[in-house]
Design brief:
With 322 residues, this protein is mainly β. 13% of the residues lie in helices and 46% in strands. The strands form 6 sheets. It has a 4-stranded antiparallel beta sheet with strand order 1-2-3-4, with no helix packed on it. Strands 5-6-7-8 form a 4-stranded antiparallel beta sheet, with no helix packed on it. Residues 7-28 and 305-322 have low confidence and may be disordered. This is Mitogen-activated protein kinase-binding protein 1.
């Protein structure tokens, strides 16, 4: 597999570009501006590093040796999101989503062969997440078309296929999404500075609250802590906030980056929040001891549940086994 794109459409696009009279120097300048990694993801096993660039190229590297395992022109525009399926799903999948409105699902257990291509979104796709819930494997995606799609995995002949279960439309662009540890709810960061919480099982909106303390800007990124008690957000006003996931109460606000924060991550020990920004800086924020204690207590309460495999329903025991 060297190319996931329709070569006829690429040829037409190139021909149109020539007719438009674009010079070689202009084309080279455009390519230089578009070169660069857009998104990264490490596989759950920690063995593979997936990267998507602004030209739509997907690369897979071996983390230990950094040898390139795969190099494929997956999309005709920049790759905005990569997501590996979690171990509890019983699958080894990689989803790639792009500004070209397509989602490719690849089988990581079979040399990243193509499983399915989804084209339901009508605009850029900003986030894709997998979740195992109530005996089903879900794939949730959101995008600039203001839509959230909820799909479940089903066995179709000898292959696997994700079919749509719910489709939700809101009045604002959806920029990022995360799934809480019990895998019952998905939190979406929106252009109107709100966080919307959706029930994954039925696709209904459960709650909505402010995702930024300011009156300007847009919620760019959201990240739920390992216990599911808190959600961190980054806003285009360069500030970072932490909210109580259930009540929406703001428990902390941080500022210091000189550009937009493009990534957030809670540490596994629940003691720090790590942020990365367009200012080329990585900040490590020390969380309040009170927050750390609460998160660790919730993790202890959830641990018995996390040790029990998320079994599949009797009617679909092989639907998500590759």
């Amino acid at each position: 597999m060297t190319n996931l794109l329709d070569m006829d459409s690429i040829t037409v696009a190139c021909a149109n570009s020539e007719k438009a009279g674009s010079s070689v120097s202009e084309a080279q300048q455009m390519d230089q501006n578009r070169v660069g990694i857009r998104t990264l993801r490490v596989s759950p096993s920690g063995k593979h590093l997936a990267s998507g660039d602004r030209m739509g190229v997907l690369r897979i590297h071996d983390v230990e040796s950094m040898d390139e395992i795969l190099n494929v022109q997956a999309h005709d525009s920049e790759i905005l999101c990569l997501e590996f399926s979690k171990p509890e799903t019983g699958l080894q999948l990689l989803a790639t989503a792009s500004r070209d409105r397509l989602i490719h699902v690849l089988d990581a257990a079979r040399e990243y062969s193509l499983v399915q291509t989804l084209d339901e979104h009508s605009s850029s796709i900003t986030a894709v997440r997998f979740a195992a819930n109530e005996g089903k494997v879900w794939m949730i995606s959101c995008g600039a078309d203001k839509s959230v799609y909820f799909r479940t995995a089903q066995q179709m002949g000898e292959g696997l296929e994700f079919t749509r279960r719910h489709h939700v439309v809101r009045k604002t662009t959806l920029y990022d999404m995360d799934v809480e540890p019990t895998r019952k709810y998905a939190a979406v960061g929106c252009q109107d500075r709100k966080i919307r919480i959706f029930n994954i099982g039925n696709g209904k909106q459960k709650k909505v609250y402010k995702g930024s303390q300011g009156e300007d800007g847009t919620v760019i990124k959201v990240q739920i802590d390992p216990s599911g008690l808190y959600i961190a957000t980054s806003c285009s006003d360069k500030n970072v906030s932490i909210f109580d996931f259930f009540s929406g109460e703001c428990v902390a606000t941080m500022f210091g980056h000189s550009e937009i924060v493009t990534g957030l991550k809670f540490s596994n020990d629940c003691r720090h929040l790590i942020t990365v920004s367009g200012d080329s800086c990585i900040f490590v924020w020390r969380l309040s001891p009170e927050l750390t204690i609460r998160m660790r207590q919730r993790l202890a309460d959830l641990r018995p549940l996390s040790t029990i495999p998320n079994s599949l329903s009797a009617s679909e025991p092989k639907a998500v086994k590759l």
